[in-house]
Specification:
- The chain has helices spanning 2-6, 10-15, 32-47, 59-71, 79-103, 107-137, 156-174, 178-197, 201-215, 221-238, 240-247, 259-275, 286-290, 308-338, 343-362, 372-392; strands spanning 22-25, 28-31.
- The chain is an all-alpha fold and 399 residues long.
- It has one domain.
- Helix 14 (308-338) runs antiparallel to helix 15 (343-362).
- It is globular, with a radius of gyration of 21 Å.
- The chain starts with a helix and ends in a 7-residue tail after the last helix.
């Protein structure tokens, strides 16, 4: 399972990388990377049979979310694509969360799973930092079109990295093992730098929220919040690329301004959802379902509405939206409950709170779940924290 988590950033790079990586199981497309996750799942389901925590705080909300996704595989213009999305974004990640929760009741195994996510984060961060350096070396326009590696857009970098940074900062500040704290600081520095240099404005806001939330539980919270805030303000004023990325959003005439495009996309999506409220556009059906309702000025070819609530409403209908919001509420409750547990569970709970905030903040203008790597990461982080809470209650994966 740790190895499967480690290769999650490669999904984007290899999912359309040619016949050597794409294959089919009957009518359903898959990749060798997805098969690696499925093998880990099978091993976990067999090895933990009878001990897996099927009944947990996320069971019912996850089932409601899954029910919404299943319904929208029928009420969609593309049934084949919807079935592929159902297994890759819902069934497999949710099962992975259950297996990971069972494994993470043992702290040594939890560390190994976190090590897999560390590798994933470093692969993503270093690859994209290298792409940026290469773009600067070749005098590319890295301000308006930041170069990326593994991903299709620079916004995907903080979408994946900022939730991991939340856990890293929590361990760096509140972990009991000195070596773990040092490694966490190093990891947070690298992933934080990659998120900042992605020049994603929503990524910056999400990262700022992570810093604030993690620091709130520290005795020196004012210093931990104030120092990064001053540094961010100075960078925003001094670094031309950062300053330009911020100011361009106040220039409605600029072709690089994304505000107008987002509003047009959201209005078009809402018009479609008002006419199809129960099932939305269907799983994998947004692009096709939107066409009769899109505004005249809408010129994008997006496959999602780029808003957390509209994404789930369109893809999984009202049933799935309720399931996701219920899941998020349970994440909040589980994290708050974990704050009163032992130091390890408390540390992971602080990280989970910050990660949830990052997902909701970045999710107001982007798609923080509907990708292979993001959906697996989401349920993996929930599972690791849940495992620590279960261990606090006397449940151990070795029992």
């Amino acid at each position: 399972m740790a190895l499967a988590l480690a290769v999650t950033p490669l999904y984007d790079a290899f999912s359309s990388g040619g016949p050597s990586f794409r294959l089919h199981l009957g009518p359903l497309p898959t990749t060798w990377l997805e098969i690696a996750l499925v093998l880990a799942l099978l091993a976990g389901l067999v090895g933990g049979w009878g001990r897996l925590p099927w009944r947990n705080p996320y069971t019912w909300p996850a089932l409601v979310l899954l029910a919404g996704a299943i319904l929208d595989t029928w009420f969609t213009p593309d049934h084949r694509a919807a079935l592929g999305i159902l297994k890759a974004y819902f069934v497999e990640p949710m099962l992975a969360g259950v297996v990971i929760a069972w494994l993470a009741t043992d702290r040594r195994r939890a560390r190994l799973l976190l090590a897999g996510l560390v590798i994933a984060g470093l692969v993503s961060a270093l690859a994209n930092l290298g792409a940026l350096a290469n773009g600067i070396r070749h005098h590319l326009d890295v301000v308006h079109a930041p170069p990326v590696f593994l991903y299709r857009t620079s916004n995907a970098v903080p979408l994946f990295l900022v939730p991991l940074t939340a856990f890293a900062l929590a361990i760096a500040l509140y972990g009991q093992d000195r070596r773990e704290r040092r490694l966490a600081w190093g990891f947070a520095a690298i992933t934080g730098a990659a998120s900042v240099l992605s020049l994603s404005r929503a990524g910056w806001l999400a990262l700022a929220a992570v810093v604030v939330i993690v620091a709130l539980f520290h005795p020196r919270r004012l210093l931990l919040i104030g120092a990064p805030a001053v540094a961010a303000a100075l960078l925003g004023l001094v670094v031309p690329g950062a300053r330009e990325r911020i100011l361009v959003e106040f220039n409605l005439a600029s072709r690089f301004n994304s505000v107008g495009l987002r509003f047009s996309l959201w209005r078009s999506a809402l018009d479609m959802l008002v006419h199809q409220p129960l099932f939305g556009g269907g799983l994998a059906g947004f692009h096709t379902s939107l066409k009769p309702y899109q505004e005249r000025d809408y010129g994008e070819q997006q496959i999602y509405p780029h808003n957390l609530f509209l994404n789930f409403w369109s893809e999984t209908g009202l049933v799935g939206l309720v399931g996701f919001l219920w899941t998020a509420l349970q994440v909040l409750r589980s994290a708050l409950r974990g704050l009163g547990a032992d130091p390890w569970a408390r540390t992971l709970s602080i990280g989970l709170l910050a990660a949830l905030a990052a997902i909701f903040i970045h999710g107001q203008v982007d798609v923080p779940y509907f990708k292979n790597d993001l959906s697996v990461e989401f349920w993996a982080l929930l599972g690791i924290q849940l495992g620590a809470v279960l261990a606090e209650n006397g449940i151990d994966s070795r029992q």
